[in-house]
Amino acid sequence: MTSLLKVLFSVDFGYASIRMASPLILAALGGLFSERAGVLSLGLEGMMLSGALAGFLGSFYSGSPWVGVVYAALAGGLLALVYAAACITFKANQVVAAVGLNILAQGVTGLVFRGAFGITQDLKQAAAFKPVPIPVLSKIPVLGQIVFNHEILVYGAFVLLPVVIFVLYRTTWGLKLRSVGENPLASDTVGVNVIRMRYAGVVISGVLAGIAGSLLSIAFINTFIENITAGRGFVAFAAVIFGKWTPIGVFLSALLFGAADALQLRIQALGLPIPYQLMLLFPYLLALIALIFSGRSQSPASLGTAYEKSGGS
Fold first, then answer.
1. Per-residue pLDDT averaged across 298-310, rounded?
2. Average pLDDT in the 83-101 region?
3. Hey, what CATH class is 2-118+145-292 in?
4. Residue 8 pLDDT more than 80?
5. Cα–Cα distances in Å, from 19 out to 23, 24, 142, 259, 303?
6. What are the pLDDT digits (tens) for 127-176?
7. What is the 3-class SS of the chain, one letter each residue?
8. How far apart are CA 201 and CA 212, in angstroms?
9. Nearest to 36 by CA among 273, 254, 241, 210
10. Residue 177 above 70 pLDDT?
11. Across all residues in the chain, what is the average pLDDT?
C-alpha cells in the first residue's frame, strides 16, 4: 500500500497521466463535435489508427513531425468523410458503419505498413516531437515538471478545451451544430443545412482523432506498430458519454482514463502479485464501470438517428 501511495503522489505519475490523457482529450473532444451533431463517434478508434500511421509515414519520409501531423489530420478527416457519407448520405446504421470502419482501418494500416517496410522486427524511427519546457513555468517545483515540460501537441490538447467551449457555446455555428443534434427538423425549418452541419461535425472529429493518433506514433514512442491505439478510440468514445456530452465533462473524463492508463503501467513495475493482463485491462474496466455508474445523462435527442426530410427526401 505504501508503494502504491508513493506512485500516486509522485511527479512521474502526474507527468505520465497528462501524457497518456492527451490523445484521449483530443479524440474525445473531437468526438463531441460528431455526437453533438447527432452522429455516433464509435469510429474514433479507426480514425486514430489511420492518423497514427499517416503521421508516422509523413514524418518518416519528410523528416518533419509537423508534416506528419498534417498527414494524420488528413487521414483521420478522410476516414471520417467516408463514415459521414455512409451514415448521413446513405443512412446506414451508425453502429454497424463504425464497426466496419474500425475493422477497415485496422486491416488497411497493417497492410500499408507491411507494404512499405515489409515484415520485420526492426522498429523504424521517424522524426519526432521533443518536450518543449515552457520558460519560467517549467521551473516551478513539482507543478512545473508535471505540467509544463511536454511535447507541443500535449499542450495543444489542453488548449483545445477553451476553444471547443467557445465554438460550441459562443458562436452561431456551434448553436447550429447543437441544434441539428437535438432537433434536425426544426433546424432545417429555420434554414440550417442539417446535412452540411452533420458532415462538418464528423469530419472535425476525424481530424482531431487523426492528430490524436499521431501523438502516439511521433511524440510518444517515435515509431508505428500495428494496432498502436490499442482501444484508446473506444475509451475516448466512453469519455464523451461519461462526460455527459459537455466539453469540461469530456475533458475530465479523458484525464481520469489517462491517469488509469499511467497507473496500470506503474503498478506492473512495482512487481505486485497481480497478473499483468489484469493491469492492462484496468483502464478499459474503469471506463466500463464509469459508464455503468455514471447515472442518467441526457444525450443529444437525435443522436444515432439518420435525418430524413418530410416526404422521404
1. 87
2. 96
3. mainly alpha
4. no
5. 8, 10, 16, 9, 31
6. 999 999 999 999 999 999 999 999 999 999 999 999 999 999 999 999 99
7. CHHHHHHHCCHHHHHHHHHHHHHHHHHHHHHHHHHHCCCCCCCHHHHHHHHHHHHHHHHHHHCCHHHHHHHHHHHHHHHHHHHHHHHHHCCCCHHHHHHHHHHHHHHHHHHHHHHHHCCCCCCCCCCCCCCEECCCHHHCCCHHHHHCEECHHHHHHHHHHHHHHHHHHHCHHHHHHHHHHHCHHHHHHCCCCHHHHHHHHHHHHHHHHHHHHHHHHHHHCCCCCCCCCCCHHHHHHHHHHHCCCCHHHHHHHHHHHHHHHHHHHHHHHCCCCCCHHHHHHHHHHHHHHHHHCCCCCCCCCCCCCCCCCCCCC
8. 17
9. 241
10. yes
11. 91
CB atoms within 10 A of CB 204: 23
- Exposed, middle or buried, 309 (CB in 10 Å: 0-12/13-18/19+)? exposed
Does the model's pTM come out above 0.85? yes
Q: What percent of the chain has pLDDT over 90?
A: 77
Confidence (pLDDT) at 144? 92
Instruction: Tell me which residue of 30, 32, 34, 86 sits closest to 201, measured CA to CA.
Output: 34
Confidence label for 105 from pLDDT (cuts 50, 70 and 90): very high
The dihedral region occupied by 297, where left means phi > 0, alpha psi between -120 and 50, and beta the remainder, is beta
Per-domain boundaries in the chain: 2-118+145-292
- Residue from 111, 73, 110, 60 nearest 204 by CA: 73
Whole-number Cα distances in Å, 96 to 102, 117, 304: 10, 32, 11
* CB distance 30 to 206 below 8 Å: yes
